[in-house]
Each structure stands twice: as C-alpha cells, then as structure tokens.
Amino acid sequence: MGRIIAGIALYYLCRMEPFATLYINLHGGRFEIPDRTFYSILNAWELSMNNMGDVKELIPECFYFPEFLRNINKFLFGNRTGKENESINNVELPLWCHRSPEEFVRIMREALESEYVSSNLHNWIDLIFGYKQRGEESVAAHNVSFI
Questions:
Q1: What confidence score (pLDDT) does residue 5 get?
Q2: Measured between alpha carbons, how far is 92 from 99 in angstroms, rounded to an integer?
Q3: Whole-model pTM?
Q4: Hey, where are the domains in the chain?
C-alpha cells in the first residue's frame, strides 16, 4: 500500500526534485510514458472518476504550493500520443482558475476551508480512518477498492 501512496504523490510531484528522481527510479530509470504522466488537471480528474484502478486523491501541495504545477526544471516528459508537436511541460489548468497556478491553489484552498467542507469533513474521516473504512459499512458507503 505504501508504494501506491508514494506513487500517487510522485505522479503529482514529478516536476520537482527530489521527487523527479524518485519518480524516475519508480519507473525503471526513466520518466513514465507521456500519456500516463500528470499533464492536466482535467485528465487526472477524468482518470480518477472513470477508472477505479487509478483513483488519485489530491496531495497537500494542491492547497498551498503552485510551483508543483510548473516544469521549472525543464524536464523532457515527451509527447502524448497524437500530439507529436506538443511536448508535456507545465500542467494544463482549468479555465476557472484562468490557467494560473497561483489562482488554482487559492481557489482550491478556499474550497477546502469552506463551510460545506467544514460541515462534512467528518464523513470523509469516517471513510478514510473510521468505521466506514472496512466491512459492511465500507460496502454500504461504496468505499471499496478492487486493486
């Protein structure tokens, strides 16, 4: 399980050292194939929503560290399939944040600190750490994984 969690963090942090080196080591001495690299917020969301074997929770950096979204080290991640003239560089961001890493982090933090999240955080805690983590309560809450 620890390798999976580390892999998720490295997926998001692959543009920054020392995480890039760890990411390369995890993938046998090279960056992951471009189509499976973290290149887009939308793509990461769609993968998590549509592929139960590839669910990725957000990392803390999404709420305070916009630099993880930039390829400041100029790593060569390659080109996605069918995008030969478009190399992966900075993470593609949604229009709602005006494609700004700082605005993305600000809005994400604002959402995290919202009244709605504060009022419902206990439900998430029950799923991740509490009584809905395993057993019948887990199944009833659709908190099951088939990994």
A1: 62
A2: 7
A3: 0.83
A4: 2-93
